[in-house]
Amino acid sequence: QVQLDESGGGLVQPGGSLRLSCAASGSIIRFATMGWYRQAPGKQRELVASISSGGSANYADSTKGRFTISRDNAKNTVYLQMNNLKPEDTAVYYCNYQIPALGRNYWGKGTLVTVSS
């Protein structure tokens, strides 16, 4: 089992910034892909960004140029720096840890990000 502990959500004004963190613990395998997904009210959960153990990042078109994902393998932690936030970024953000080759996929409990004036 893998446990994911998220932090950093909150209320921010449009144009502001937030940094999310997610620390993984338990049966950690270093070559897992970690990432962030989000789900807004009435919408499906969608990928925000993901990063491989080697540092290769993948972003949703809506977040490119504004969000940056990074990870610290020594701390088993993934970060999401969110800049120039927009009201449409309002959602619950979920941390994800997955190793598709082993059929392992874990989710955090989610952290709420609200962008509003």
Key features of this structure:
117 residues, mainly beta, seven-stranded mixed sheet, four-stranded antiparallel sheet
- Average pLDDT value? 95
The end-to-end distance, rounded to whole angstroms, is 40 Å
Question: How do the helices and strands follow one another from N- to C-terminus?
Answer: EEEEEEEEEEE
Radius of gyration: 14 Å
| Helical residue percent band | under 10%
Regions with pLDDT < 50 over 5+ consecutive residues? Answer: none
**Given the helix and strand composition, which structural class is it?**
mainly beta
Tell me the major beta sheet.
7 strands, mixed
What's the number of helices? 0
Number of strands: 11
Q: In percent terms, what proportion of residues is strand?
A: over 45%
**Overall shape:** globular
Structural write-up:
The protein is mostly beta strands. It contains no helices and eleven strands. It has strands spanning 2-7, 10-12, 18-26, 33-39, 46-51, 57-59, 67-72, 77-82, 91-99, 104-107, 111-115. The strands form two sheets. Strands 2, 4, 5, 6, 9, 10 and 11 form a seven-stranded mixed β-sheet that branches. It has a four-stranded antiparallel β-sheet with strand order 1-3-8-7, with no helix packed on it. Strand 7 and strand 8 form a beta hairpin. The model has no long low-confidence stretch (mean pLDDT 95).
